[in-house]
Amino acid sequence: MITLNNYEQYLVLFVDGELDEATLEEFETFVAAHPSVAAELELFQMTQLEPDQTIEYQGKKKLIRTETTRRIWLPLATGRKYLVAAGIAATLFLGVVVSRMQKAPELQPLTHRPQGTSDSTARDIASKSDLPVLIDSAKTGNTTVSRISKAGAKKTVMPAIRKSLKSELQNKPQLGYVQVAKDQPDSANKDVAIRSTEIDRADQVVAKRTEDRGALPAITPERKNPIDSIVTADTALAALPQGNHVTKPQQERDNGMQDLMSGIREKILNASDAVAGKYNSIKKNISEREVKVSFVNKKFILSF
Amino acid sequence: MHEKEYNSAVREWSDRLFRFVLKSTGNMADADDIVQNSFEQLWIKRSQVEAAKAKSFLFTVAYNQCVDNHRVKTRRPHTALVDSPASGPTPGVKKAIEKALGNLDSQSRTLVLLKDYEGYSYEEIGRITGLSDSQVRVYLFRARKQLKEFLVCIENVI
Description:
The complex is a heterodimer.
Chain A: H1 7-16, H2 21-33, H3 35-46, H4 60-63, H5 76-102, E1 107-108, H6 119-127, E2 134-140, E3 143-149, H7 158-165, E4 177-178, E5 180-181, H8 196-213, H9 226-230, H10 233-239, H11 250-271, H12 273-285, E6 290-295, E7 298-303
Antiparallel strand pairs in A: 1-5, 2-3, 3-4, 6-7
Helix pairs in contact in A: 1-3, 2-3, 6-11, 7-12, 10-11, 11-12
Chain B: H1 3-25, H2 28-44, H3 54-72, H4 80-83, H5 92-103, H6 106-118, H7 122-129, H8 133-152, H9 154-157
Helix pairs in contact in B: 1-2, 1-3, 1-6, 2-3, 3-7, 5-8, 6-8, 7-8
């Protein structure tokens, strides 16, 4: 309720426009009933300020903003470096992909080292054979091509061998490359039977690859060892685990390797009288009783 | 609030903000700094401020800076009427009111300016200044009464 004791605050509220409808009516009634209050109301109304519209802020232009997108310009040289690096990486990646696509997995490696086979095992097998045979291998893609070469006997022996058997072996393959088809039956653990069809096929593949590659350094006159020619693909093939390369028991592998060595020796001895004779001479000329033999990726020792 | 809305706020509110700050601080340079800082804050926080609340944001920032400015220069007398570029010849009553405004304390002066210059309600003034409605009412009552008493003195009016 508005009284003479509190009317001033209502005057201020009225000036400031903060009175609600009901209070406003009561206030107007009170002011009408009290002229002195009305005069005082005029003074309060005079306290109201009016903004000076002539005052303007002069720095508006400074306040205007524009959203700008940051652009990072790399130096041209740096950009080129990145471009060149990206190009090289893309080229290498495409090269790898294309090369892998071109190499269809049609053939399986000739030799697949069974799990558990150790050098000591091979050495034991080799000790049961008296034939010095050195077998090298060259891996090309998914296919392993094995080359049977001379034994690791003293180098002084080899020229004599080559010379004596040169004439006889001219018509035979100079190197025996063997390539084993993927789906060959698993027979490595049974015997060392020579499968002529597969050998022929392997020889064809080898010949074709030899022609394609053309520059296999291994086919050189110095390395045309007669024994290499005799114990070529067939013996190596027979000795190797075939088919799906399931790991064989150790004894089966040992038997297979022993048969291999026997087959190699028999092959040489039965090749011709000249070869057999030279083999004996080789044996005599070998001063060392152990010959290190490298078979594919595996090394073992043959003892005489 | 995006760029266009911000620039629109500059064009719409910079003059009024400047008048309020100038009257509050009584110093042209301080008013310029406070206005610039207020809009700088608005630009920085534009993503958090709606366009409709830009004015309230600006006056809140400006009010706080006016308070800080007053604390720093608490001993300096208010010279708004002297520094004001519009401080030319004015009618007697208006000039007396301007003078009386300079004699108010900083808090009361600011509240009167917010009320009279911008027409804010007590509730809005409370949001800007952080005061309660009753505090705003008390401050404004005291300020109005002080201004009225200043006008009552004949020597102040003449």
